[in-house]
User: Which sequence fits this backbone?
């Protein structure tokens, strides 16, 4: 039973890629066969998973124009993290694809390319760009659930409304499986009255049940893990708090889908 | 003599809006007549400057399709910060405008709308969205200089190449005034060997002269200032370090243009 999750927020830098990679790391550590789909032209997930972006690669941009059901099967590659973690790289004209016109079925193109190509995976994680355009819509069109990553600041909270609207649009127009699976708090500062206030507001906004615990704290070791192109779980005890956090979030994700 | 600066980076959450507002705050404190142009559909600069986003507003989205030179003059409004700080709000179909096809002159539409409308301002600050699409291209098309905001992480550094390429493209295709004015470091953590390493790499990448000092440290009071829709300079001594930083950066900006 494959679970497909789109990790999204139009707000930049909240940790969509960090959360995608953290969940993939937890999956790697627990032997789950996982596919990461990189929908961001910046290709940060692709790079951290050990694949150098190159015009030679096929990837999500190509999948979006392929028209063949299951076309993504020939585009996915094994990641640098291990045999069970695969990647559909950010490749092809992703920036171009963002400007594709909205037509009937245009939000279902990624799902069609993945159709039948993901049956061997336990989990599919789709890392979205900071945008609510055509690529993110396709990410939602291909997903069973949406994971909204939120940073507890005023700008972070202001961005939530339009994201929920897009989830609603894609649900009604393209994908009746789609649901808001949960809200993940990231980059939570150790000491901040402002952040605590925003978390209270967030709970009022989406309901306490939607805001997942644990929250992910701000920790510089996350940047170190990215830099080493390594799953956070490979760091052992210096990262033990983050490892526990991502294990708990993965567990919650699997129960929720 | 009006100086127009585009504040950009495709990478999300590096502080484009924070730096735009910090420079506007320093300008407010020193009595400079300043126009903030909000090119991000999320409208965070618009909101913090005291204007509630509304479909009633005219703004950058409308300016991009107006065709009339100086059309922005009737769209700009006084901000909530004070008489000398004005705003061209994020309004109109900005998300739609992002998908406009590239044609001859399409990157010069914002400049045309601002042409003659900014003569009374000392400084024009253009806050760009996390994208290298048509809206950001127009921001660069209207600017004398580009300010690249960078967070010292591996993802932060990976994003720089494509931004410099776009500056190059807009310079060659549309705007021969355009230059990379400088690189501003933001969200620098107090203690991080990883961040220090990235700053060394950044200096190698763009040259030490391009990387401006001082860097902007990670400080939770910034979020508080945003939340209160207030210039950071209004906070007085609790924000004295940041006030000094933005004063120094504004000084450097004015000398560089
Ligand atoms: N909990 C955290 N602690 C410390 N650093 C973090 C944390 N989460 C994210 N970061 C760092 O913050 C930056 C932004 O995170 P990330 O790139 O994952 O966000 P994003 O939402 O994917 O950004 P974009 O909108 O550009 O896709 C990165 O450099 C990342 O390493
Ligand atoms: N130096 C800093 N210290 C603490 N918080 C900061 C700092 N700079 C930015 N932030 C906070 O980080 C978040 C991202 O910053 P900001 O929105 O300015 O970035 P951006 O590049 O404009 O994002 P986007 O790509 O979404 O437009 C905001 O909540 C902001 O308040
Ligand atoms: Mg990302
Ligand atoms: Mg911004």
Assistant:
């Amino acid at each position: 039973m494959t679970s497909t999750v789109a990790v999204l927020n139009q707000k930049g830098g909240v940790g969509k890629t960090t959360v995608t990679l953290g969940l993939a790391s937890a999956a790697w550590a627990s032997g789950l066969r996982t596919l990461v789909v990189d929908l961001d032209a910046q290709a940060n997930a692709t790079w951290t998973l050990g694949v150098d972006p190159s015009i030679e690669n096929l990837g999500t941009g190509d999948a979006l124009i392929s028209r063949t059901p299951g076309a993504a099967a020939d585009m996915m590659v094994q990641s640098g993290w291990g045999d069970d973690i695969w990647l559909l790289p950010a490749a092809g004209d992703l920036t171009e694809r963002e400007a594709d016109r909205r037509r009937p079925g245009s939000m279902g193109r990624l799902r069609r390319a993945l159709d039948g190509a993901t049956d061997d995976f336990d989990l599919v994680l789709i890392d979205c760009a900071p945008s609510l355009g055509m690529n993110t819509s396709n990410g939602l069109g291909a997903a069973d659930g949406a994971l909204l990553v939120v940073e507890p600041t005023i700008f972070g909270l202001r961005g939530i409304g339009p994201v929920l609207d897009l989830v609603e649009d894609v649900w009604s127009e393209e994908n009746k499986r789609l649901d808001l699976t949960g809200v993940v708090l990231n980059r939570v500062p150790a000491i901040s009255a402002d952040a605590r206030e925003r978390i209270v507001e967030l709970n009022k906004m989406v309901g306490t049940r939607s805001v997942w615990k644990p929250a992910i704290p701000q920790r510089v070791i996350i940047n170190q893990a990215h830099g080493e192109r390594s799953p956070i779980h490979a760091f052992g005890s210096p990262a033990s708090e983050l490892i526990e956090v991502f294990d708990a979030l993965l567990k919650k994700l699997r129960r929720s889908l």
Summary: Chain B is about 40% helix and 15% strand. Residues A 12-18, 40, 44, 129-130, 186-187, 216, 218-219, 222-223, 226; B 11-13, 130, 151, 153, 155-156 surround adenosine-5'-triphosphate (ligand 1) (CB under 6 Å). The mean pLDDT of chain B is 97. The CA atoms of residues 136 and 181 of chain B lie 16 Å apart.
